[in-house]
């Protein structure tokens, strides 16, 4: 009887079987890697209900994956190089950040699930304000996002997970058209954390995201009044309400570099840490420059 | 002076210190958790208790004194009985009681107990605080350590007492290093014999939740908590310990697993409804504390596992199944 009960509760969480079968079929027609293999990319610590301590539920990621992998293959037509460079165990993925809305992070995570060997669940950190938005906070937690605090990042790395960090932060994502592919200042926190947890750093360059929403001005003061993180002015936004922030179908090229290992005292002077951060920044900048130079066009 | 009669059933009040069993005092012994603790400890310890409430079902060798912690008589008890260890659980957290009495009982009661412990050389003091003192906050890290600030008092007036109490015991711990003071901060303790807010909430057939929020919540089985309290008695153990069950799970999963259904209510509405229900006496749940079902307040129990040697025995599923058994 108890078993019946648990089955009932489980059914409530799942969409109807017909839809699921259709999705499976669609997947098999369009992707080489079997869905079950992708879905097996579980984090190391799941409790008896299938959640990790952060509220990540791989079950939910599966459904999100149908959407993101369509975007990955047919909208942004992502080309991913160097998937084999993702190490096993704990790792910090450091990438450039751009494009007004963080699709670059979604594409990196989808790419590593689709092409990584073995596929891995990439975790990243969300802003504090996301935690108070109804529904959104639950969704973010279920797909493996964590609140961006140093304690959370440390705990996640100690659980041997792969953590995606954008050291440029909002400076990067809100950058303007003429600053594209120029890396903004990197924070130092990620390096101290990598040294403390002895995590290898994997540099990643995303080419293509920087043109998806060309921005000419950021109305910071109005954004501040509206308590929004930014208010970009683009050829379409805010003139076309609703669709103005639709990203253009630029072609994404993601380059994953060799893991970099650093040694040293995490409590060192800023200047010492800065040298190490600059090494990572330079590596990403080189990959970016190479990626931009070798591509045929922004859209193809 | 006509004093209330101490109920001494069974053994005589002990003068002979040669007796091998250590002598333990439990304040707030007539509460549901106090009774369980007395039952757990009485085989290996001589258990005495202090409580204003009366309860008749104790084992024969448990001695209960019906008196107020704040009265001199309680101090006298320490002088005559020479307790080896004291469990301080005589702490009220009940929104129905007038706040002044609430505060007076909690703070003054605790101060008296601390004073008596110091004066009569009690070797071990175990105080039951709660992990709720950290407070629910959207910015909380997932693993709150024992050093995390106690922020619950900002918004939740009733918990302010508990925080002050927690702080008082902390400073007592630092000033009196000659004795072992243990401060336990458990997550929501639930069980078939308990009637506290989390147990009642999880027993509900239809449990209201805040729409669009589903925080990770930790619970611990009453028996596991008793084990943790027993472990705290070990000589040499002192300091603050977060106590948690095996793992955290979303609130909605806990409710469903306990056999109930969630009724999501939009946040502004639920606040108003709860406030009115509280005013009119339908609910004893204070509205500001609704945040505990919106934001996380999950703790890191690594220290308890490593130093105290505590491992929870009940899985979350077993805990919830046990909780429901009491209904039958």
Question: What does it look like?
Answer:
The complex is a heterodimer of chains A (about 300) and B (about 325). Mean pLDDT of chain A is about 85; it is low at about 1-10. In chain A, helix 4 packs across helix 5. With about 300 residues, chain A is of the alpha/beta class. In chain A, the strands form two sheets. In chain A, strands 1-9-6-2-5-3-4 form a seven-stranded mixed β-sheet, with helices on both faces. Chain A has a two-stranded antiparallel sheet with strand order 7-8. The longest helix of chain A is centred in the last third of the chain and has 25 residues, at about 270-295. Chain A is about 40% helix and about 10% strand. Chain B is an alpha/beta fold. Chain B is about 35% helix and about 15% strand. Chain B has helices at about 30-40, 70-80, 100-120, 155-175, 195-205, 220-230, 250-255, 265-280, 300-310, 315-325, and strands spanning about 25, 45-50, 65, 85-90, 125-130, 180-185, 190, 205-210, 215, 220, 240-245, 250, 260-265. Mean pLDDT of chain B is about 90; it is low at about 1-15. The interface of A and B includes residues 49, 134, 141 and 149 of A.
Break the fold down into its secondary structure elements and pairings.
The complex is a heterodimer of chains A (300) and B (328).
Chain A: H1 2-13, H2 17-30, H3 35-39, H4 58-75, E1 79-81, E2 91-95, H5 103-115, E3 122-126, H6 136-142, E4 146-147, H7 150-158, E5 162-165, H8 170-173, H9 189-197, E6 201-207, E7 217-218, H10 220-225, E8 232-233, E9 253-256, H11 270-294
Chain B: E1 23-27, H1 32-41, E2 46-50, E3 63-65, H2 72-81, E4 85-88, H3 99-119, E5 124-128, H4 157-175, E6 180-186, E7 188-190, H5 197-203, E8 206-210, E9 216-217, E10 219-221, H6 222-231, E11 239-243, E12 249-250, H7 251-257, E13 261-265, H8 267-279, H9 302-308, H10 316-325
Parallel strand pairs in B: 1-2, 1-4, 2-3, 4-5, 5-6, 6-11, 7-10, 8-13
Antiparallel strand pairs in B: 9-12
Helix pairs in contact in B: 1-6, 2-3, 3-4
């Amino acid at each position: 009887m108890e078993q019946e009960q648990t089955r009932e509760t489980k059914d409530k969480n799942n969409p109807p079987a017909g839809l699921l079968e259709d999705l499976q079929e669609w997947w098999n027609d369009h992707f080489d890697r079997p869905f079950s293999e992708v879905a097996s990319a579980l984090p190391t610590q799941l409790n008896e209900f299938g959640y990790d301590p952060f509220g990540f539920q791989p079950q939910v990621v599966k459904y999100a994956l149908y959407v993101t992998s369509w975007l990955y293959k047919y909208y942004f037509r992502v080309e991913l190089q160097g998937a084999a460079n993702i190490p096993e165990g704990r790792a910090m993925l450091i990438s450039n950040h751009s494009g007004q809305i963080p699709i670059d992070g979604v594409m990196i995570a989808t790419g590593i699930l689709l092409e990584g060997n073995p596929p891995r669940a990439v975790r990243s950190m969300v802003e504090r304000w996301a935690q108070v938005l109804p529904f959104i906070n639950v969704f973010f937690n279920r797909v493996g996002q964590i609140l961006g605090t140093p304690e959370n990042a440390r705990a996640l790395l100690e659980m041997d997970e792969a953590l995606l960090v954008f050291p440029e932060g909002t400076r990067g994502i809100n950058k303007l058209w003429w600053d594209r592919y120029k890396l903004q200042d990197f924070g130092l926190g990620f390096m101290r954390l990598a040294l403390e947890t002895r995590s290898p750093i994997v540099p990643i360059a995303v080419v293509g995201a920087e043109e998806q929403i060309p921005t000419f001005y950021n109305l910071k003061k109005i954004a501040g009044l509206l308590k929004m993180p930014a208010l970009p002015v683009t050829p379409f936004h805010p003139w076309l309400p609703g669709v103005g922030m639709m990203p253009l179908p630029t072609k994404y090229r993601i380059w994953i570099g060799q893991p970099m290992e650093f040694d040293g005292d995490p409590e060192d002077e800023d200047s010492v840490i800065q040298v190490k951060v600059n090494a990572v920044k330079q590596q990403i900048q080189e990959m970016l420059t190479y990626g931009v130079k070798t591509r045929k066009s922004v859209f193809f | 002076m006509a004093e209330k009669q101490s109920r001494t059933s069974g053994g005589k009040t002990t003068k002979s210190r040669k007796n091998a069993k250590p002598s333990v005092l439990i304040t707030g012994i007539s509460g549901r958790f106090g009774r369980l603790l007395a039952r757990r400890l009485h085989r290996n310890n001589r258990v005495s208790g202090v409580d204003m409430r009366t309860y008749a079902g104790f084992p024969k060798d448990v001695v209960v004194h019906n008196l107020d912690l704040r009265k001199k008589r309680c101090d006298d008890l320490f002088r005559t009985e020479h307790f080896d260890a004291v469990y301080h659980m005589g702490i009220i957290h009940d929104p129905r009681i007038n706040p002044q009495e609430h505060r007076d009982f909690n703070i003054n009661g605790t101060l008296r107990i601390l004073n008596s412990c110091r004066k009569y050389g009690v070797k071990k003091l175990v105080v039951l605080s709660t992990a709720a003192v950290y407070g629910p906050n959207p910015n909380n890290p997932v693993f709150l350590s024992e050093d995390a600030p106690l922020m619950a008092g900002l918004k939740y007036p009733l918990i302010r007492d508990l925080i002050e109490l927690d702080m008082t015991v902390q400073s007592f711990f630092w000033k009196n290093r000659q004795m072992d003071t243990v401060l336990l901060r458990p997550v929501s303790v639930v069980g078939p014999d308990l009637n506290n807010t989390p147990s009642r909430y999880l027993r509900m057939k239809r449990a209201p939740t805040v729409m669009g929020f589903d925080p990770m919540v930790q619970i611990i089985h009453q028996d596991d908590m008793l084990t943790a309290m027993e472990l705290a008695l070990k000589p040499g153990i002192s300091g603050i310990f977060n106590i948690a069950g095996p793992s955290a799970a979303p609130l909605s999963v806990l409710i469903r697993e306990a056999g109930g259904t969630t009724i999501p209510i939009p946040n502004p509405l639920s606040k108003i409804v709860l406030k009115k229900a509280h005013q009119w006496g339908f609910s004893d749940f204070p509205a500001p504390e609704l945040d505990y079902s919106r934001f996380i307040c999950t703790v890191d129990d690594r220290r308890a596992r490593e130093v105290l040697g505590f491992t929870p025995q009940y899985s979350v599923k077993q805990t919830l199944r046990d909780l429901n058994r009491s209904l039958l």
